[in-house]
Amino acid sequence: MASLSLVSGDKQKKARKRDKKRSVAGVLALVFVGWFFLQWFLVGTVDQQQKRNKVPDTPRDLKAETTSTSTRKVPSSADDTTDFHIVFSTDCSGYQHWQGILLYYSAVRVSQPGTITRIASGCTPEQQQAIAAEWSRLDPTGKRFQVHFAPSTALEHEKYKYSNKPGGILHWLQHHSKLDRNAVVCLLDPDMILLKPLTAQLVDPSWKTRAHGRNQVEYFNPTTGMAQLLRVKSLANDDNMPARVTTGFPAGQHFGIGGAWVQGESPSAKPAWKNFSKAYVCGNGRVCTTTSSAEASQRYAVGPVYMATVADWEPIAATWWEFVPRVHEQYPFLLAEMYSLTMAVANLQIPFSLFSSYMVTGADVGSPTEAWSWIDDIFAKNNNKDPLQVVCPDIVDKDQPPPLPLPTANNMPLPKTLHYCQRYKMDFDDNSNNNKQSFLFSKRKMPHTVFSCDNNDAPVPFDMQELIRLAKDKQQQSSEWTTIEKRTLFAFCQLVPLLDWARKMYREQVCV
């Protein structure tokens, strides 16, 4: 019996050991299953987020759509270079197509040095072929006006196309085989025209400064007395500004967007920024998370015109592209790509020298970050008499835009560009029929076929001669011109005659 008890006891011990092993195996199985489902959930969440933002590629994975396999040019040993490139980003819509052609002709008008490249994103093979053929007729040499095709980097199922700007310039930088890293690249928007040549020059050591109104400072040539650059007064004490754009010293147009993103998640933030996480965009503990509002406004609040060397553009473009989906996810509005760039350069600690003199936009803008005060000065110099002759000289008799610089503004400065992102509108009393006439220039109202070979030479968007007739009537009646009216007249006298002239040039060059 004893032996039977011992055997039975051994069986019980073995059974208990077996049960213990099964219990451990069961726990391990549950842990594994739990781990598997956690990974599945996390991967699924990331995948859903990526699908929601539709980020086509990471910056380093943007695929080339060019046949060139050349390596990048070895950087020059010199500290400076004469290479200057203007680039602008578009999709392949007719809306931005005509804007790009007008930008090119404005550059021809002012004898802009260097090359001008359209970066066209998301074009079909048929669109690429048509654009390339058209560009070859506009510039048979291929040296002045070029086109680069990039894949679409639009977000939200192609709804947010402004992300094509960082994606496009990054693709262009990665696949341009002849760029010297010291070359200066100037990024514009397609809805801009040049009023003066853009160059890499900043402040000449011989220039002096003087107050211009209450909120601005001019840098002027003491020999001629002519102003060369315009800045917001609070930015004038910048002792580190070089004579020209160099690596580490980019420059650009001062924008009033300021450092709104700095407010992110703070109690005082505006509603759009209440839940905006800087750490989600830049990374925990990174520079942009501690950037002050003053730093953001005075060092990084830049917009088109953007000028930097290739060596600076490479990290800027890559970081800009990386940040856009993260900013847009939290701030799904028009200016997400602009805020993304300001956050990128803040995080990279690449401050921009900010100027007001690169641009004017809407005629009602009162911010000192733009150069409308220079246009106001032109009218003031002429005692505000006959505004038409002040900013529209000779266009009554000549079939071309008014000459630049304006004869009536000798020794007076002009902004570098006119950015027609806003509408320009004027109303006149037409005494000939006791009626009112309205004149409007709005890029969204323009026909996309304004540059075409259909032999339609009707004025677009209106007959400038009719506006001149009514403006003369207004002047003869001694009617007062408001500041906004005078600025609008300036915009009309630059945009409409330029467009008429450019259309004629286009037909001569392309429609043959």
TrEMBL record:
Coiled coil: none annotated. It comes from Seminavis robusta. Residues 54-64 have a biased composition (Basic and acidic residues). One of its GO terms (molecular function) is glycosyltransferase activity. Residues 65-74 have a biased composition (Polar residues). Residues 52-76 are annotated as: Disordered. It comes from the Eukaryota. This is Uncharacterized protein. The keyword Aminoacyl-tRNA synthetase does not apply. Keywords: Membrane, Transmembrane, Transmembrane helix. The keyword Transmembrane helix applies. Signal peptide: none annotated. The chain crosses the membrane at residues 23-42.
